[in-house]
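Quick review question:
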């Protein structure tokens, strides 16, 4: 599927390692229209320096618009913020959890 290859390319070029990224919105729920955008939601991992250092990394990264010929809405939160959002669990946060049929992941090198 061409759209999935383009979505995977966006996941692979994310500036931070991703714990997961999943399709959300109309494509997840099975009712996309011909002009539906692709909603990707995920969790990114900050470097140790950005977690404990004086300068923290971004809690949220957003990318939207026409990318690679598809309308894309990509939002990722760092692991700390994502964990905090899950505490008061809502249907919105549950829908952002990875699904076997719609998840992408990128292997990251092990430290050391």
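Suggested answer, residue by residue:
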């Amino acid at each position: 599927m061409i759209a999935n290859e383009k979505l995977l390319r966006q996941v692979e070029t994310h500036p931070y390692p991703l714990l997961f990224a999943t399709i959300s919105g109309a494509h997840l729920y099975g009712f996309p229209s011909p002009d539906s955008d692709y909603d990707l939601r995920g969790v990114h991992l900050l470097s140790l320096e950005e977690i404990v250092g004086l300068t923290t990394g971004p809690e949220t990264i957003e990318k939207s618009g026409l990318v690679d010929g598809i309308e894309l809405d990509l939002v990722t939160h760092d692991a700390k913020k994502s964990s905090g959002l899950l505490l008061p669990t809502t249907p919105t946060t549950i829908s952002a959890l990875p699904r076997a049929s719609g998840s992408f992941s990128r292997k990251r090198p092990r430290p050391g």
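Why it works: The CA atoms of residues 8 and 104 lie 7 Å apart. The chain has a mean pLDDT of 82.
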